[in-house]
Design brief:
Strand content: under 5%
Helix content: 55-70%
Keywords: Cell membrane, Membrane, Transmembrane, Transmembrane helix, Transport
Main location: membrane
GO molecular function: ABC-type transporter activity
Number of domains: 2
Number of strands: 4
Distance between the termini: 21 Å
Subcellular location: Cell membrane
Shape: elongated
Order of helices and strands: HHEHEHEHEHHHHHHHHH
InterPro entries: ABC-2_transporter_component (IPR051449), ABC2_TM (IPR013525), ABC2_TM_bact-type (IPR047817)
Low-confidence stretches: none
Radius of gyration: 27 Å
Largest sheet: 4 strands, mixed
């Protein structure tokens, strides 16, 4: 009952009185997730294409006519390769297409017809995806009788919609950062406000104080997750939930507790809020990089693949994707639950001991 009283009467009310923190949490779980889901584009979008056509039209113009909006803007003609290269250098054009004078003649005579492409690879994902689009367009003009018919079946994300994936990934990253920062701040604010000694004099077991403060932040993050799911992921992006909602919530709770352990460690070694922010970024960014949130684990160097086994976020992301997209049964999620539970217990235990030495 003491823990419950401290959580409700002190920590949650204190959080609600802090307008700045409330605004940050609401923004993170709503607007930030929405921006990540709608604003980050992996597919080509409004790509500016320039071309040099020395063939006089015909097949080359038919190829260019396949570049439709909204993926591509109307192609821009250039008189020379040098002018086109300068436009790419000045970021006026992302993709340049060069048709030499023999292109149409070689194409119609059945010889090897060559198209040269110039790509601005500083926008790597957009330009390389655009290259694949152009490659498919050119393949449509080939009259090759291939004896095998290829049919692709997209599993788990039939529409290849990256919006729902990006929004969900952003939510998981937000959970990671917020629970660490909020847990650390709730202790460090006591130091900054000069109430740390008063807290030590309260007739309450220090373990209860630590549990109440840390679990109050877990509850705040859990409420933010429900808010984000209902108003952003399900309502705005129609993210599928093929598995158990309660399995995801239980997993989120366990993961939040493990991240709260990191927050306890940060609080123990930080003197002010600025140090909390600095240490949180230093600790959490490697965990996010190693988790597979931005790069698949199997694409990493073998050393980093091994290190990723010590990131609870890796198990959390893999389990969440399995629940939402694959509809994995609860019993089959035990490897992910085990990873989060084991690492979470160790992290929270270490953080609990570290902050407990200050009492």
């Amino acid at each position: 009952m003491r823990i419950f009283a401290m959580i409700v009467s002190k920590e949650l009310l204190s959080f609600l009185r802090s307008i700045g923190l409330v605004a940050v949490v609401l923004y993170s779980f709503t607007a930030d997730v929405y921006i990540a889901g709608s604003g980050i584009q992996i597919k080509p979008r409004n790509v500016v294409v320039g071309y040099v056509d020395k063939t006089g039209g015909g097949v080359s113009q038919k190829i260019l006519a396949r570049l439709h909006q909204p993926e591509f803007k109307p192609p821009i003609a250039f008189l020379s390769q040098k002018a086109l290269s300068n436009a790419i250098f000045n970021k006026e054009v992302m993709v340049g297409i060069l048709f030499d004078s023999d292109f149409e003649k070689n194409y119609k005579s059945g010889k090897k017809a060559q198209i040269n492409l110039l790509l601005d690879a500083t926008a790597a994902s957009q330009s390389l995806t655009t290259f694949m689009y152009l490659q498919n367009i050119v393949f449509d003009f080939q009259s090759v009788n291939f004896p095998i018919e290829l049919k692709s079946h997209k599993l788990f994300n039939q529409n290849a919609d990256n919006h729902s994936f990006m929004a969900l990934t952003e939510l998981l990253s937000i959970i990671t950062l917020l629970i660490v920062i909020l847990t650390a701040i709730v202790f460090v604010k006591e130091k900054e406000d000069g109430t740390w000694d008063i807290m030590l004099l309260t007739p309450v077991n220090p373990k209860i104080i630590i549990l109440a403060k840390s679990f109050s932040q877990v509850l705040i993050v859990m409420a933010g997750v429900v808010l984000s799911l209902g108003f952003v992921l399900f309502d705005q992006f129609d993210v599928p939930l093929n598995g158990s909602f309660w399995a995801f919530m239980l997993l989120t709770f366990l993961y939040s507790v493990s991240s709260a352990g990191i927050g306890l460690f940060v609080a123990a070694v930080s003197k002010d809020v600025i140090q909390v922010a600095q240490l949180s970024i230093i600790i959490m960014m490697p965990l996010i990089f190693l988790s597979g949130a931005w790069t698949p684990v199997y694409a990493m160097h073998p050393v980093f693949q091994t290190l990723s086994l010590f990131s609870p976020l890796r198990y959390y992301i893999e389990a969440t994707e399995s629940i939402f997209f694959r509809g994995t049964a609860f019993i089959d999620l035990w490897p992910y639950f085990s990873g989060v539970l084991l690492l979470g217990t160790l992290l929270y235990w270490y953080g609990f001991r570290k902050i407990g030495k200050l009492f």
